[in-house]
Design a protein that fits this description.
heterodimer; A: mainly alpha; B: alpha+beta; six-stranded antiparallel β-sheet; three-stranded antiparallel β-sheet; 28 helices; 11 strands; elongated
Chain lengths: 188, 687
């Protein structure tokens, strides 16, 4: 990322923070660039797949962005929340615009075991999950947020608890409940 | 699902989840939950085992192969055709777009261009808008020191692109160090940059992102401004400018304080950035790192003398034209400090003033950036020859008187005729103008007061008339702001004064300064006149003539002069400037040193090949002489020049019989006689 863009990103982040959806639209490519860069960095230190700490990827990407831009996240609430939302948006937008995929495969359970499945199918599954999550948002926004922060943001229960100002045991229970519902919806 | 229902389901679910199957059953048995709710909860609980592994990883791990695959990458357009160009390489990436090197693909001729394309992800309407704006702005900016717009369009998959002149060069800072330019050369290069920025400002465009990497210098040493991507139109509606604000990606190191604070951005912002660039050109470093610029204290730091002075820059001291490096440091510091003032209003008000001060510095004249005090002025004046220019001031005074009188007369005439309301209003405006002019005149006359020049007063007892003129000439725009017609007329008159003043001074820098002044006022007059009277007007033609007069012999001069002649013919063929223009054009055509007749192109009627050059000169001279008659007697200098041009062109065309009728006039002037003799020798008529 060249020096030239950083103030723009700062401004865009602030504007998006204030609810300007246009700003989000413009912000995505910057985040996407940074994300890809971080992914590359991470993959350069190739480690066994199951120990891959790719949560670092999202964190790194956004931390770097906010450090670079000097965005003052008063607490980390905004940061975590925006990071997860961004990540979801990026991958979903990107998958939609660049692939013509069928809806998710019922056999995909979004678990480590699934990574043997062709990547195309996995992208389709993520798109499907996104749709299902949108339905969950309609009647339980907080739970959907927890899912988003866990899966798309890669945050820990503790971080999510802090961000949403609830106890981490609540996060844990909500997460468990959400998975039950999601599993059913994804396999219907 | 109903939100209300889900709340009940979730409450129950969260209650029973920590329980073991036995406890759950007894819980259900004891509680009196609604059957539907209980059914839903039990249905969800059947997935308890299976869902345990759901999302035991996050999306990045899950899509790892996809994220690191090339498919996630933007496809490089190298090899792709855009319009008639084929992309061959990358030049750089901005936020919204990338710039590629491209070549013409239609094989017509070899031409390298720069293609700026919007990134696929950025292909949204808001950004397309700003992209279109950049295109429109570039289209309006045709200037030798601004990278030109060549073409624009959309690719097959609907991605907008613009094609620009490709500048094979290096950044201005690199150019300075790579060529070890001395301070004056650096300043002159910088002044050229100022001219381009000034041109943009006159077109109501603020660049907003001036920095070395946007100022490339070609091998031949010509600077070119690039990247008007975030530039702003001064007259933009608030809505359009808001969309640009979102993308106002400036570069912190070069951004003005008001830009960083997100305040109103004016042309003063560019002046600030230019100050940073000049600082870097002279010292190789930035005035201050941006992180130190947050608070007011840091900004005052910025006002410290530069940590590295031009003295320390790499250059040959023996060759240096600056006799006293200490004074160099002082004046240049003052100029740069002024341009870097935190308050926009304390900076130079125009880029032209900035450049003019640098010229003054180069010429060893007092710079405006420095508060005037006696010892400073006296030091500067010491050793400069006295130039008698009372005549110039008299011309100036008579001009002012003339304007005032004619305006008064107009107004009076209108009053006498009994006026409509509109005419009355117009007259009021004219009256206000006349008042302003007479006020200005009052100031001018006060310069005649000997007290001004007494020791210890404003001009330190050592002022010359030309100093007074210099002082006045800088005030035109401020004094007559909003009255381009009056401004133009004054600039026009100053052009005459400075043109006449040359050739009398004995000091080269002074001559250069006056020539630059002539040039400046001529251009300013032309610009203002166009603004007021439109592109085509007899006064515009006259100003074009004046600008051409200040140019060196060459294609630019030829083109401008020819254009002025054509416009004058069209607008007022009776104007006495027309024969003068024709006369000058004839003189220009026969100028013996000007040998590259095929290089220029003219808007005049006759196509200029070397062969018909003299034919054209003859025609121009003849017409000039015809028009001069009745105005001048034959011993008038202009008349003689015309005759001489005619004689010369006749010799060159071997029209010896006609030549004999004219050459005796020329023999009165030594230089002209030499010229004719040269022609005769060239044509084999004289040994």
């Amino acid at each position: 990322m060249s020096d030239k863009e950083t103030p723009a990103i700062t401004q865009l982040l602030h504007e998006w923070n204030d609810g300007n959806e246009d700003a989000k639209e413009m912000l995505l490519p910057f985040v996407y660039d940074e994300l890809k860069r971080q992914a590359r960095l991470l993959m350069a230190n190739e480690r066994p797949r199951h120990t891959l700490q790719s949560t670092a990827l999202v964190h790194e990407a956004f931390l770097r962005l906010s450090e670079q831009t000097g965005v003052d996240w008063k607490n980390r609430i905004h940061f975590y929340s925006i990071a997860a939302r961004m990540m979801r948006q990026i991958l979903v937008d990107y998958a939609r615009s660049h692939t013509s995929l069928k809806r998710g495969n019922h056999k995909i359970h979004f678990s480590i075991d699934d990574v043997q499945i062709p990547v195309e199918e996995r992208i389709g599954a993520v798109l499907f999950l996104h749709d299902v999550l949108e339905r969950l948002e309609e009647f339980d926004e907080r739970q959907a947020k927890i899912v988003e922060m866990r899966f798309f943001g890669g945050f820990t229960n503790l971080e999510i608890a802090e961000s949403l100002s609830i106890s981490d045991s609540t996060v844990r229970r909500e997460w468990k409940a959400a998975r039950l519902w999601l599993y059913r919806e994804l396999n219907q | 699902m109903q939100t209300e229902n889900w709340k009940k389901v979730k409450d129950l679910l969260l209650t029973v989840l920590p329980l073991d199957p036995f406890e759950r059953r007894s819980f259900f048995d004891k509680s009196s939950v609604d059957g539907e709710i209980r059914g839903e909860v039990e249905s969800l609980l059947t997935f308890e085992k299976n869902s345990e592994n759901l999302m035991n990883m996050n999306v990045v791990e899950f899509l790892r192969d996809f994220i690191i695959s090339d498919r996630f990458d933007e496809q490089t357009p190298i090899g792709q055709n855009v319009g008639i160009y084929k992309i061959v390489g990358e030049l750089g990436f901005g936020g919204m777009g990338a710039v590629y090197l491209a070549e013409r693909a239609d094989g017509k001729f070899k031409q390298k261009v720069a293609v700026k394309m919007l990134k696929r992800e950025f292909n949204v309407e808001r950004i397309r808008q700003t992209f279109r704006r950049e295109k429109e702005i570039l289209a309006a900016l045709v200037h030798p020191n601004i990278a030109r717009l060549l073409d624009a369009g959309k690719t097959d998959d609907n991605i907008p692109f613009i094609v620009m002149e490709y500048i094979a060069g290096v950044s201005v800072v690199d150019f300075c160090s790579a060529n070890s330019l001395d301070v004056n050369a650096r300043l002159k290069l910088f002044i050229k940059i100022c001219e381009a920025v000034g041109f943009a400002h006159r077109n109501l465009i603020i660049h907003r992102d001036l920095k070395p990497s946007n100022i490339m210098v070609t091998k031949s040493g010509d600077p070119k401004l690039l990247d008007f991507g975030i530039s702003k139109l001064l007259v933009e509606s608030s809505e359009t400018s808001k969309s640009t604000t979102i993308l106002s990606a400036m570069t912190p190191d070069y951004a003005s304080p008001e830009q960083i604070k997100g305040k109103m951005v004016t042309t003063a912002t560019d002046i600030y950035s230019l100050g940073v660039v000049l600082f870097q050109m002279l010292t190789g470093s930035l005035p201050l790192k941006v992180e130190n610029r947050a608070g007011p204290e840091a900004v005052s730091d910025l006002m410290r003398p530069p940590p590295v002075t031009p003295r320390d820059t790499k250059r040959d001291n023996a060759k240096s034209k600056i006799p006293n490096p200490k004074s160099v440091r002082g004046d240049l510091d003052n100029i740069i400090r002024k341009s870097l003032s935190e308050e926009p209003e304390r900076r130079y008000q125009t880029v032209e003033q900035f450049a003019a001060d640098l010229w003054r510095y180069i010429d060893g004249l007092p710079v405006s950036a420095r508060p005037a005090n006696f010892s400073y002025r006296a030091r500067k004046f010491y050793g400069r020859n006295k130039i008698a220019l009372i005549a110039g001031v008299l011309v100036f005074l008579s001009l002012l008187a003339g304007i005032t009188v004619s305006m008064m007369q107009t107004i009076e005439a209108r009053y006498q005729g009994g006026m409509a309301l509109a005419a009355q209003r117009e007259a009021e405006v004219e009256t206000a103008k006349a008042k302003k002019i007479s006020d200005f005149m009052g100031k001018v006359i006060s310069y005649a007061n000997p007290a001004w020049y007494a020791t210890g007063s404003r001009f330190g007892g050592d002022a010359k008339v030309i100093d007074v003129l210099d002082d006045l000439s800088d005030k035109i725009d401020a004094e007559f702001a909003g009255q381009p017609d009056v401004q133009a007329e004054l600039h026009h008159k100053f052009t005459e004064v400075y043109a006449q003043a040359q050739g009398r001074g004995k000091v080269a820098p002074r001559e250069k300064f006056m020539h630059d002044k002539q040039n400046f006022h001529a251009r300013r007059a032309l610009q203002l006149r166009k603004q007021h009277y439109g592109e085509k007007h007899e006064l515009v033609a006259k100003d074009m003539y004046y600008v051409s007069a200040a140019l060196e012999n060459g294609p630019d001069k030829a083109e401008l002069l020819a254009g002025a002649i054509a416009m004058m013919r069209e607008t007022n063929p009776d104007n006495l400037n027309l024969p003068h223009m024709l006369n000058d054009f004839a003189g220009f055509l026969i100028w013996p040193e000007f040998e590259s007749g095929h290089q220029y192109h003219l808007r005049a009627a006759i196509p200029p090949t070397d062969k018909n050059r003299y034919q054209l000169a003859e025609a121009c001279a003849r017409e000039a002489l015809r028009l001069f008659r009745g105005h001048y007697t034959e011993d008038n200098l202009a008349f003689q020049q015309g005759k001489c041009s005619l004689a010369y062109s006749l010799v060159m065309q071997n029209k010896m019989a006609e030549f004999e009728q004219h050459h005796n006039v020329c023999s009165q002037d030594e230089e002209m006689t030499d010229l004719i003799n040269l022609a005769l020798v060239k044509n084999g008529k004289l040994e």
